[in-house]
């Protein structure tokens, strides 16, 4: 008896008629080219000699291929743009700092009761760390030391004047 298997197509709209956006991942070729570029190597030679270590684009963290300590991020926060120029290799810590996740309460239109929460992701961006300005240290003059252990000025008791 032949077995038939079929799968339903993924829905394109939700139950309220809003279009569902599907996030597409970067291709492996794009990821490997960005990996080589971030490590300071020629991205076109990734097939000949693939380098197993690279660097985060934002901090000096050294990353190892396959250890899941890195993520490929979209520079301009457009998830549908999977071009090579939009791919950005960062460590997980930097990616977490660059993306802010907020939760917004969703209320019922008629009763005003809280029905659920909506997650909002906002890209803060990868800003270069500012160099700290070096301030001049204040020079404090020290009182001259007395080699004989005597007081230079006599102490006057309080309320004397």
Walk me through the structure.
11% of the residues lie in helices and 22% in strands. With 161 residues, the chain is of the alpha+beta class. The chain has a domain of 96 residues. The strands form three sheets. A two-stranded antiparallel ribbon has the order 1-2. The longest helix has 11 residues. It is flat and about 110 Å long. The protein starts with 27 loop residues before the first helix and ends in a 38-residue tail after the last strand.
Please report which band the strand proportion falls in: under 5%, 5-15%, 15-25%, 25-35%, 35-45% or over 45%: 15-25%
Bulk shape: flat
Question: Taking all residues together, what is the mean pLDDT?
Answer: 79
Topology pattern, helix = H, strand = E? HEEEEHEE
Strand order of the largest sheet: 1-2
**Roughly how many Å apart are the termini?**
117 Å
- SS-derived structural category: alpha+beta
Strand elements, count? 6
